[in-house]
Design brief:
213 residues, alpha/beta, 8 helices, 8 strands
Amino acid sequence: MVKIAPSLLSVDFACLKDEIDKIKAAQWIHYDVMDGHFVPNISFGYSILKDVSRITDMYLDVHLMISEPSKYIDNFIDSNASLIVFHYEAVDRDEIDNLINYIKKSNVDVGIAIKPDTAVEVLLPYLADLDLILVMSVEPGFGGQKFNPIALDKIKKLVSLKQDNNYKYLIEVDGGINETTAKLCRQAGVDVLVAGSYIFNSNDYTKAIESLK
């Protein structure tokens, strides 16, 4: 069954523990980190991630939408990230392998995210070593955007590559996920659905989460 990762970007931080308690039906928490440079918005950093890790044992899926992620990797590892996902577009090509290996040696899962305009093919050299690929179905930086169907073709390509080569990575999609777009992504073969406003703007978080499955 597909995993659901509610995005804390849409959470009410005044009631953080209560909000997290209400998403227990989900397996993961998606934690968006934005620096105002790689994307035109600012969110939260590693200190709040550590606070989150103290109040839940859910899998912490950390999405770094930041420039030069290698500068901060140790901070997020030390803050109990379960998975660290960095952007292909934010790292020099000759540094990607080193960054993947460094995260894996720290006993943290590792993934790479790609923007809507980035082709799946750029990831071919790295697929064997990754635990997850994050397909962005919106431009990263803001919640509440409309789903871009270009993500569906990318998901299908990644499914085919995974099956043909016996790769182990999960395929995650983020952006504009609701009951309708979730169904399209499931049909394409996605493993993890990130949803923020669809869940946290609903009257019943558990019902919203279940509707995505």
